Amino acid sequence: xxxxxxxxxxxxxxxxxxxxxxxxxxxxxxxxxxxxxxxxxxxxxxxxxxxxxxxxxxxxxxxxxxxxxxxxxxxxxxxxxxxxxxxxxxxxxxxxxxxxxxxxxxxxxxxxxxxxxxxxxxxxxxxxxxxxxxxxxxxxxxxxxxxxxxxxxxxxxxxxxxxxxxxxxxxxxxxxxxxxxxxxxxxxxxxxxxxxxxxxxxxxxxxxxxxxxxxxxxxxxxxxxxxxxxxxxxxxxxxxxxxxxxxxxxxxxxxxxxxxxxxxxxxxxxxxxxxxxxxxxxxxxxxxxxxxxxxxxxxxxxxxxxxxxxxxxxxxxxxxxxxxxxxxxxxxxxxxxxxxxxxxxxxxxxxxxxxxxxxxxxxxxxxxxxxxxxxxxxxxxxxxxxxxxxxxxxxxxxxxxxxxxxxxxxxxxxxxxxxxxxxxxxxxxxxxxxxxxxxxxxxxxxxxxxxxxxxxxxxxxxxxxxxxxxxxxxxxxxxxxxxxxxxxxxxxxxxxxxxxxxxxxxxxxxxxxxxxxxxxxxxxxxxxxxxxxxxxxxxxxxxxxxxxxxxxxxxxxxxxxxxxxxxxxxxxxxxxxxxxxxxxxxxxxxxxxxxxxxxxxxxxxxxxxxxxxxxxxxxxxxxxxxxxxxxxxxxxxxxxxxxxxxxxxxxxxxxxxxxxxxxxxxxxxxxxxxxxxxxxxxxxxxxxxxxxxxxxxxxxxxxxxxxxxxxxxxxxxxxxxxxxxxxxxxxxxxxxxxxxxxxxxxxxxxxxxxxxxxxxxxxxxxxxxxxxxxxxxxxxxxxxxxxxxxxxxxxxxxxxxxxxxxxxxxxxxxxxxxxxxxxxxxxxxxxxxxxxxxxxxxxxxxxxxxxxxxxxxxxxxxxxxxxxxxxxxxxxxxxxxxxxxxxxxxxxxxxxxxxxxxxxxxxxxxxxxxxxxxxxxxxxxxxxxxxxxxxxxxxxxxxxxxxxxxxxxxxxxxxxxxxxxxxxxxxxxxxxxxxxxxxxxxxxxxxxxxxxxxxxxxxxxxxxxxxxxxxxxxxxxxxxxxxxxxxxxxxxxxxxxxxxxxxxxxxxxxxxxxxxxxxxxxxxxxxxxxxxxxxxxxxxxxxxxxxxxxxxxxxxxxxxxxxxxxxxxxxxxxxxxxxxxxxxxxxxxxxxxxxxxxxxxxxxxxxxxxxxxx
Amino acid sequence: xxxxxxxxxxxxxxxxxxxxxxxxxxxxxxxxxxxxxxxxxxxxxxxxxxxxxxxxxxxxxxxxxxxxxxxxxxxxxxxxxxxxxxxxxxxxxxxxxxxxxxxxxxxxxxxxxxxxxxxxxxxxxxxxxxxxxxxxxxxxxxxxxxxxxxxxxxxxxxxxxxxxxxxxxxxxxxxxxxxxxxxxxxxxxxxxxxxxxxxxxxxxxxxxxxxxxxxxxxxxxxxxxxxxxxxxxxxxxxxxxxxxxxxxxxxxxxxxxxxxxxxxxxxxxxxxxxxxxxxxxxxxxxxxxxxxxxxxxxxxxxxxxxxxxxxxxxxxxxxxxxxxxxxxxxxxxxxxxxxxxxxxxxxxxxxxxxxxxxxxxxxxxxxxxxxxxxxxxxxxxxxxxxxxxxxxxxxxxxxxxxxxxxxxxxxxxxxxxxxxx
Lengths: 1158, 421
Hints:
Radius of gyration of chain A: 84 Å
Low-confidence stretches of chain B: none
Number of strands of chain B: 15
Structural class of chain A: alpha/beta
Strand order of the largest sheet of chain B: 4-3-2-1-11-12
Number of helices of chain B: 13
Shape of chain A: flat
Largest sheet of chain B: 6 strands, mixed
Helix content of chain B: 25-40%
Mean pLDDT of chain A: 85
Distance between the termini of chain A: 26 Å
Largest sheet of chain A: 5 strands, antiparallel
Oligomer: heterodimer
Strand order of the largest sheet of chain A: 2-1-4-5-6
Mean pLDDT of chain B: 91
């Protein structure tokens, strides 16, 4: 279908505008108009023609909507359709004569396209082009879905591709990054190489250092040689300086020795020997004299002293008797007391024998009668056991009695108790009841809540007036749904607004007409102008009279009064002519009046139209209101949508209140039921226990009653349990007491048998009571003590008397042996005389021994003094023999000279040693010769010079030694260490890792390339013809910058992209705005061609789509549009004249039709 | 002297780092670093232990481009140990030594006798009377037949020719330096030709004895197996016994070709790898750290999966190796498996269609060009020698991307199958 002609009869600013589009092989028409010329209006007019006027149109600003008219001549093949379109709901199509046409005539040409579809596909301005393009990219329309169908199966592959890309980037990418594995290995490699360079020794460096060391060795050797020479000379000088003073002294000593002449060679100690001999001789002589005098004195004292040896010889015996005498004296003094104690004991013996009934025997006989100690001990032990046994038996008997009494008491209490009751049911019922809490309160609260909610419900129901009814009726009430009500409200509001607006406009129109009328009347009054209607009225009156006159003249209808009619005609003619004359005479005023009149008429027409529109709107509103009310049938409501909205809100609230009231009622019912169930259970449990609750009591009273009963019964149960435990304990206690009593009785029997045997063994009266036996045992023990004491005292008295007699005999015997007369002297006195004689004899003997010692000592001193004098004389003998001088005085002189010579020789020897010591190993003669005639001062000067020179040399050597040590150290460090080799090995390992990563990267890139290639091939094979055509158009529109379009994959999403320069895949986001426009146009034109090929051959309208194109691209665009126009008509609207020029340049003459709107 | 022994070694390449070993946790990295030094120490130890009369080194003592003088000092120290034991050394410089600064600068101990570079030189070993003839390389690229001008044998003595050569016809990949034929050498009338340059042990001739001892320490995966020197026994100035090869290498290289065709899952695969690696370690380590290149072969359904997870596979193999020995180092894991032909034909799903298209990729020139262009920047920014001369990187640098695309196809096939599954 194509437009052969388009008529803008009344549309927008256009009136009776006709655009013609002549048919040609290329059906491309550029419609040019300046800004505001009406391009957009024209496109809207086309849409209105094809699909009808919209309800609201912006193009009725000049002509009322009802007056809008668009016409066209459409061609579809050989068929042509000349039609008009007016505004309206139906029957808006007509032919040029106004004959209504069936819509089907046009619909057949539209191939099923509606307004939206047409605008989206065929009628594009820049905004719709972009919107449509975006819809394609997002696959929101058929075109997009067709394009992206090829990529739909590649989602997983796209993810894989992304993964591979990520993995490849983790290995290597042009941008260096530490976390990329290749670069990490490379870093290690570079560091190792750097270490290697640092560690390795260059041959030249090694050679340089070696030569440095050798050179320094040479310098050092020269310095050391020179220093050796100087040090040698300095040694010579110093030696001569040292020898020189000693040589002078040696010469002096040699002269002194020569002066002494011949000297006897006496020993060095000759003088000392001579002096010591003289001293010793004097001392020997004095000692001899003193010893002789002492000897004579001792001899005189010895002569009167004589010694008696007998007492001395018996002194031991005498001393022994003196020591014995003490004991003898003590015994004799103790004897009377012992004898008195013996008498007392014998009396006590008699008393005890009497008490026991024994005969009055002596102590020994009594002892023999005593029973053995073991028998007595056994009796005492049995007596002690008897007391304990009696106590145990008594206690056991008492315990048995008490246990029996206790058992009897418990049994009596147990028998007195009522039987225990089973509380399980009651407790279970109470548990349920307690779980309800304060159920009465809860029920009361629920009742209050229910009442409150019921009141709220009543209020809510009341607010639904005029509707009345129960909540159930309200729930069952069928009312329009919310969307319908909302739509009705919107429609009603819109209609009300429209009616109000129309009324406002109508009023304005009426006001306007009144104003016009006022102005016209004013003009009539104020100006001479004749309004057209006044002239017309005058002519109408003239013509009316003339028709009557003419009928009379022609005989058609006779006048009653022809003359009067002729006069009237003349008058009316004159008046009409006069009016016409006045009108022409006042043409300007008349024209203004005419304008005012016309305006007044138009305004009247407007008012009529406005009135019609208002009536239509009101009618429509009424229809809608009726339709709305029809929806409320059966509800009892007759509310307009707006109040219905409020009512519906209140209905929802009322329903909510009803639900709340129901819920409160349900809560209350539930509480009451639970309360009743618990009460029933409690009552049953109480009845079972024989304690029914008092009648008519509430739930709380019932619970309280049950709790009290539960407490009482529980106490009873506990009492039963406690008494049963007490009974068991008392029974066990009685059994234990009886057992203890029987054991005590057995023990007493055993004791009695043992007692009888023990009494018999002790020889006591076995008929006697244990108490009697106990007393006899005490007496026997006393008797045993008394007998023992008597025996001991008797033995002691006999011993004292025997010892005193023997002592007296021994004293008399000893006195006789010492020559003393004993006579009748008591032994004690005689012993004292013996002691005195012995002491005197010992003293005499001691004095004599001391004097004999003094005499022997004097004799020894005499002999020693004689020996000493002889030895002293003998020591002088050698000196006399050596010197040949016997005279002691001459011998003393010889001894002095010999001493002097010896001193000089020693000095000479010392000097020679000094010289040799200072001479450094040279001979004495050479040293003396070397020093002979030397000048000490000159030698000192030379020594100083040499010292200074050597010091300077030493400094230089130290300096060079340091340098040499440094050089040697540096050289030594250049060893064959492995650091460089290790670093090289590390570098090689890192390089190997680089190779591994490089290979991994190459493999990864190969996988990526292969996968991309495969996807590309797949896409190419699956690419739709539509996309291929779009790609071709896009390439042409972009002047070849983009070569192809493809469905690329962005993650898991298919997207359209283009192959740009260097085969780069450029997504839409990467394109400039102009390029995106060209892409959208290419896609749209391909889609249009596709649609046209499918049979929908509708004209393609383009509203200035090249505004972002440069001239070259615009030229390409026109070429493409021309190509498209071979398939369907293309109407290109623009207000750019230069685009027309571009189009003309691009297309061959005749291939472009230009139509101007201006 | 009626009987004595001498050692013949060559191609020591002292301090030359071992190549191709990526370090990872648990490998004997320290042993690797100084392997060539340790091997030289082993040589000296062996000479002293065997009480040899002298040692012959037939060239390539150093690496040509190695500038570190410390290497020479280490060599001197080692020779010093031989001097203390009274053992002389006869040293001939090979092509690598010719370009080494160490050769020109390093003063050698007195027991080391270096063959000159201007003409053939002859040394007489005084203690044994043995005569050694040799000519050191003056230039690296020596293409002349040096042996041709060696002097005639001296009658009544043991004559040893020392020569650095690949012989006529060469022994790739060794450069054909100093070419000569065994017949020419035999014609000299020497008793023993101590050759160097070829890194594999080879007895070229037994009459006379012409021997390559191989290098002292393998330095990359091309130099697998035991490496060391040759111990030669002389009786009455004649060699009457076959030379004895001494393994003196400090670490060793090996290849483990493991057929995984029987593996149907990872567990079985790991068992095969475990068994294969344990076997090669037991057979070849000889108490030394062993560097192994593992090649998986066989037609297996795991092929695609293995291609897909090469990195993970490498880590798995490394883990298995560490578990066997902390002296077992996986140099590389190479995949030579193939997929069984189980495809029933092109399916109708997207993945099937993609797979069918993908299979055509490796042969597509446009794709190859695109890949080359894609990799151009990367290859330009990475060292040209990276990865050696016979592997995938080298192929790619030569523009040969067919193999890597074929591998990529297998990997992608497995990846898509995994994602789909």
